[in-house]
Design brief:
Blueprint lengths: L8 E8 L7 E9 L14 H6 L1 E11 L5 E9 L6 E7 L7 H4 L14 E6 L4 E10 L12 E6 L1
Antiparallel strand pairs: 1-2, 1-3, 3-7, 4-6, 4-8, 5-7
Length: 155
Amino acid sequence: MVVITAANLKMYQGTVWAEGTTHGGAINTSAEIAASGDQIIFDDVTDAQRVSGVTEYRKVFFRNENADPVSLKICISQNYTASNETISIALAATASDVQTAATAYSYSTPSTVATGLDLGALGNNASQGVWIKRVVSVGGNGYAVDTMALQIGMY
């Protein structure tokens, strides 16, 4: 009998978490990302970024720490409320790719698990990298707290 618990589906940073062209790399299993909270994926948008616009990328890994394999999909269950701020997602092409490669990937905005990106069947301690792209367009309103949410589901 397959026993899968949500507590054993975890999200991790890549080996290079600092912003820039080398962001990403392989999974860093000592850097688990909290399931929710302020600035866990992206930092706050600065006033200068809001005025001039900015595109940023973050690579996260979803890892199955259950004993049994599981097939997963990911979607964007909540986009930013700021009208000038959006996110989209793409599968990492390799386990160690960095931002310079990720800028050329095809990003999408699936809003349900059914239409989400297929992370595939992950065995025990297997992971799949996902790139998150945040675009802040020029001249939008500022927000004190603006959040987004990803959802992972089994199929």
